[in-house]
Design brief:
Number of strands: 5
Structural class: alpha+beta
Strand order of the largest sheet: 1-2-3-5-4
CATH class: Alpha Beta
CATH topology: HIT family, subunit A
CATH architecture: 2-Layer Sandwich
Strand content: 15-25%
CATH superfamily: HIT-like
Oligomer: single chain
Number of domains: 1
Bound molecules: adenosine monophosphate, zinc ion
Largest sheet: 5 strands, antiparallel
Number of helices: 3
Radius of gyration: 17 Å
Shape: globular
């Protein structure tokens, strides 16, 4: 629990949330400002600000819960033609609540949600340079 963290307060029960799943490590509740009906947040109960601070075991479980919510959404009767599992880290990446969370967002044609992907192809030597920087820091 970290003071002033809204998700820690939901986890300890001092702020209400509409829960869809809970176990000893992860809670999932409805996003209060949903992008589309059925938008859920899966949240580790321990406080980590960003993904890189979190242990892989918790991360793997968080994603497992996200997959279960995805399957439940598809069976729910809500309008779910597709989903986005979205996980934002840092203000530059749209993170508003500094407690790790995984969005499970139902999607349908024409819902108006926009994410702009790259528009220009990068040069192969540029891709190799970036890959080299990343590969040299990969843990095994
Ligand atoms: P992010 O931009 O990835 O940090 O997303 C934070 C999400 O948390 C937003 O979609 C908010 O609508 C949602 N949110 C903020 N406060 C609450 C709350 N009290 N209960 C449920 N969802 C919340
Ligand atoms: Zn927290």
């Amino acid at each position: 629990m970290t003071d002033d963290c809204i998700f820690c307060k939901i986890i300890e029960g001092s702020i209400p949330a509409v829960t869809v799943y809970e176990d000893d490590k992860v809670i999932a509740f409805m996003d209060i400002m949903p992008i589309n009906p059925g938008h859920v947040l899966a949240v580790p109960k321990a406080h980590f600000r960003e993904l890189n601070e979190m242990d892989e075991e918790t991360g793997a479980h968080l994603f497992r819960v996200g997959m279960r919510i995805d399957r439940a959404l598809r069976r729910s009767g809500l309008r779910v033609e597709g989903t986005n599992l979205l996980q934002n880290n840092g203000r530059a990446a749209f993170q508003e609540v500094p407690h790790v969370h995984l969005h499970i967002i139902p999607r349908y044609e024409g819902d108006g949600m926009k994410v702009r992907f790259g528009q220009e192809k990068a040069a192969p030597e540029q891709l190799r340079e970036w890959a080299g920087l990343i590969k040299s820091k990969m843990e095994r």
